[in-house]
Amino acid sequence: MCGIIGYVGKQKASAIILEGLKRLEYRGYDSAGVAILHGGRFEVAKKAGRVDGLMKSTSAQKITGTTGIGHTRWATHGGVTDANAHPHVSSDGKIALIHNGVIENYANIKKFLLTKGYTFKSETDTEVLCNLLAYHYEKEPAVAEGSRFLESVRKTLRHIDGTYGIAVLCTDCPAEIVAARKGSPLILGVGDGEYMLASDVSAIISRTQNVVYLKDGEMVHITAKDFSISTLDAEDISPVIDTINWKIEDAELNGYAHFMEKEIFEQPTALENAMRGRFSEDGSTAQFGGLNTTASEFRQIERFHFLACGSAWHACLIAEHLIERFARVPVDVDYASEFRYRNQPLANSKLFFFISQSGETIDTLAAMREAKRKGYKVLAINNVVGSSIGREADGGIYQHVGPEIGVASTKAFTSQLLISALLALYLARMRDMSFSDGVEFVQALKGTPDLVRKTLLLAPAIKEIAKRYAHYHDFLFLGRLSLFPVALEGALKLKEISYIHAEGYPAAEMKHGPIALISEQCPSVFFVPSGEMFTKVVSSMQEIKARKGKIIAIASEQCDLPDGLADDVIRIPECHEAVLPIIATVPVQLLSYYMAVELKRDVDKPRNLAKSVTVE
Ligand code: F6R
Hints:
It contains 20 helices and 25 strands. α12 links the parallel β18 and β19. α8 runs parallel beside α14, α14 runs antiparallel to α15 and α16 runs parallel beside α20. Bound molecules: fructose -6-phosphate (F6R).
């Protein structure tokens, strides 16, 4: 949520910042802006709307100067206007600042600053922070200019309640940026004679692969020649420089129309990467490098607790199903945002798993810290190496699917399902699953990428179905057992990118209320597995058909569906029960994608959304 970028070097900063903003846009796209330090003053260009709009404004392109900051906004305080766009400049003109997060005590600070003569042009909490900084800078004793700048930022942040990732410029310090983080991600890129700051590696990957992941409560002071890291309490920190292990092409469209399309079709490879090296030598179980938990510790766990938000929460529900079904250990699942405040009684021998693609979702991070504070071991399933959740967890499993840029999660979600299946196998083989059942499970998981490839061949047929259904306003998605969370995921995918209202329900639950919605105008998408649930799901379909509801069935190949029961049938390959949620997800991703395209929606940047929700 909100993208941040900064540059100090020898090149024209505005060009580098604008290119970085383009790559960061998926984190927020309400407005964008740049501020460049030049000739002892700021040149600022900012605009409501997309980065393209800012790039077209001649002022943004023309700005010269080699030190600058830029921002893409996802609005919290104040509407989407040019004035509310970042960067903000203090009313004395000395400080320019960009911010990701929320300043909770901004109202009181603003009252104070008004009494001191500071003025405001926007409705944002960020401009308040910017003016408070100018106030402290003014009062800070004039020791060496650089440290005066740094110390005034440090002092200011001590008065702030809330979350922030900030980058700040000062007119007295021509080639310097001070940045700090608390609750919002911030990365320092160490380039060849230049330094960059970003909320996300995608913004800087074209210039450097060497990065320092700042931790919460840390600040960085960048000068033309060097950088130093310290804490808010002025303790020096020795930096650890990491290397990013993906390439610029991973964050590009490579011929696809949208990142969502690219990421759907990348899934076979993504799943291969997610399972690489994760099978035991005897081929009967899974293995993980980073769980930091021994088999005997796992055996003592009486309950697991899975937490996440959005699609990742749906992945938790599938993990619950798989672990309970195969490992026979009870699992609790919670929305991270609710867990944090619910203060529920928790069993002692519990182990927590947090699932998060970005590893920066603030609700998930806060819930993880809460579980940790209560003394529990916390493990993460996470895609972004170096993310806050990845680093703060006691151990975990990386998804290894490369950057996910489309706002709607696709490859990250299916890889979370794959990892959940690996985990269920791993835990099951520590308990009652036999060697031969383990071997069969492993073979099934190894075959998943090819089954996904086969399912993707359905894309042209699904596109035709999508065209015929795109103009309905309401949908139900219905499934049972592990396909109920897939129904939730299907409904979420459809609503978030096409803005069509959709609800996911357990198929049998439909008759306890939602059936009232059924008419010729409200189609249902049914997940129909072969096996014991087949006849039950068919009965639910009959109930819909009796009320003239249209049905799209996503049915396993061997399901012998009664003639005429479904209006459209999408046949998915037969597969192992642990793999079924992955295979069943692919058609709903495609269906949602093609409906959104048919409706000419902005698929990768759906309205009101942003990737990685770093505000509460
Ligand atoms: C939906 C989607 C979101 C995320 C949720 C959690 O397509 O992408 O619902 O799943 O915001 O994000 P992460 O996994 O980054 O914690």
